[in-house]
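Pipeline run #58 for the internal structure catalog. This entry was flagged by the ingest filter as a single-chain record with no existing model, so it goes straight to prediction. Upstream metadata was stripped on purpose; only the residue string is passed forward. Reviewer on rotation: M.T. Logging verbosity set to normal.
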Amino acid sequence: MILSHLLRPEILEMIEEGQLNELREFLSNQPAPEIAELIVAVDDRDRLLLFRILPRHLADEVFSLLDAGAQNLLLDNMAQEEIRGVLRSLTPDDRTALFEELPAQVTQRLLGLLSDADRQKALQLLSYPEDSVGRLMTDRYVKVRPEWTVAETIHFIRQHGTDSETIAMVYITDDKGRLVDDLRLRKLILADPSTRVVDLLDGQFVALSSRQDREEAVQMFKKYDLYAMPVIDADGVLLGIVTVDDILDVAEEESTEDFHKLGTVNPLEMSLREATAGLLFRKRIGWLLGLVAVNIVAGMGIALFESTILAVVALVFFLPLLVDSGGNAGAQSSTLVVRAMATGEIGRDDWWRLFSREVSVSAIIGFTMAAATFLLGLWRGGLTVAIVVAISMVAVVMSSSLMGLLLPMVLNKLKLDPATASAPLVTSLADIVGVLIYLSIARAMLGT
């Protein structure tokens, strides 16, 4: 944050004055994440210049931290040998993430720049389903045999651990490559050198499936509080590992996507900074037009009770109050459920308990709000109107709250994204229900 905000004017001034050697020396002593944030914050011309003046080892690390848009811009302006060097420096999982964001023809061209071994790894990872754990894993880890001694194992780690993404966890496999257990490096270091690895194992480990959904992997990392997890196939063969930095990226992407859906915006595949006006229009207009159509139904519902409204004009005063109260209550309920489902707090077994509790909670809320509106009804329309408004408030709040609870659950049952049951959608549906409930009660009680 320091580079991109506090020092950005000074850095831009150094670029303008051509003090590139001084800037290179300064950036060489800065953390890679800070430099990556600075590169994203400046315009395209300065972005290219800043990246090119970085030392090679630092440039490779910074590139892996950039978002897809910034990476694509840099690749478009690199020579072929530069691209080959950058791709070679990326870990298999970071390389796969880059290829996922590029057009197919660009990915095909970049694959041709890789060595045969790296190309084979890249194609293998890309062959896994989109949003699967297989696309996140890396083969840069340490695996040892159970019959080795601690001394032999530590010697092996010293020789082969340099290229590993993490050595905090060591994986033990049998002669067929199947995962036997995992072992923390700390436990290994503290053990007697003559102890065999098998004697340190407890047989309790957690592994991901290569075809498992990324969201499930996020929940497992949160549940077991690990910084790396092994990935196995159907036969238990160790294929790779997934590290917590990749899982944090997935968690951020999923949270962003859910927030967009809750705001009735189709998810963006890039940062808001990089999005064009045309893209934002396309992502937003569909939902807005759809909600217009939904609200037209509410207008048609009002038209059905035109005679009731003409007979008691005071009813109109309370219409916005009632439908908005219902929409807000439904949005509250929907937001709580969607978030709880996203974090894995609730499952199918909790539906009935949640429903019965929501009935109680929404009834209490409804009666509380009805007490306030009853007094307002007395003032604006007399006793009968006050009773109509109070009863309607209870019915509207309860029905909208239950709708907000059930809609995400129904969507989940249908294998659809519960986040689609967003607050604006629930509010619009609650408007229709609220209008029909309120005016139906009014017609029945007022005899109009």
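catalog note: The domain at 2-131 is CATH 1.25.60.10 (MgtE N-terminal fold).
catalog note: The first strand starts at residue 143 and ends at 144.
status: ready for reviewer M.T.
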